[in-house]
Amino acid sequence: MIPWLPPEPVFPPVEHALAEPNGLLAAGGDLSPERLLAAYRRGVFPWYSAGEPILWWSPDPRMVLFPSELKISRSLAKVLRNRPYEVTLDTAFAKVVEACAGTVRDGQRGTWITAEMQAAYGKLHELGFAHSVEVWMEGKLAGGLYGMALGQAFYGESMYSWRPDASKIALAHLCIHLQRQGFGIIDCQMETTHLASLGARPIPRSEFVALLRRLATADSSRGRWPAEAVRDAYRGN
Predict the structure, then answer these.
(1) Residues 6+ apart with CB under 8 A from 28
(2) What CATH architecture applies to the domain 14-59?
(3) CATH 3.40.630.70 is right for the domain spanning 63-215
(4) N or C, fewer C-beta in 10 Å, the chain?
């Protein structure tokens, strides 16, 4: 039986998560900043559909991307060199989240980024924990991604593209920014072939949780990211 969470922002040990489906750990609770921060520090995240109770997950294995291991194809490298785009950080967070929620994905009939989830991550953005990367082409938002930063751990939530390669451009610049800031890991949550093609790989949950104990214990990364922090990331390369 899946435990129902108490009012306090506490969770069962992640080792209690069901092996199938995908490490379901608990249900209920809320999306307050306190509960979400407690969840992420423990390697737990919410994922549910509108009309359902909030469901909390901790998969084993866990898909992660170490920023230095990002795979850049020849075609993407050419795009990065030619720079037919601009990249900013934390300048259009709500628009990126809304676009991610509205993107139709293979195998999904709807979105897990409900209005409640959008409001919750908007609050975390105001508090300096949630961040976005925006890719602009011809002056219009073409793609991007958003996620959470705790200490030196980044938790990727979602990405989207309205133009070819836009989300990959965002990820490439995110990896540069994270490396510059001393981040050690990007949590990608679930294993997919697309993430694997970009260099992400599954690791045992026990290894992931041990990394979080070392990387996600401080609030040193809290605060708005400078919009132009990645402007020169690939210039001249």
Answers:
(1) 4, 5, 53, 54
(2) 2-Layer Sandwich (3.30)
(3) yes
(4) N
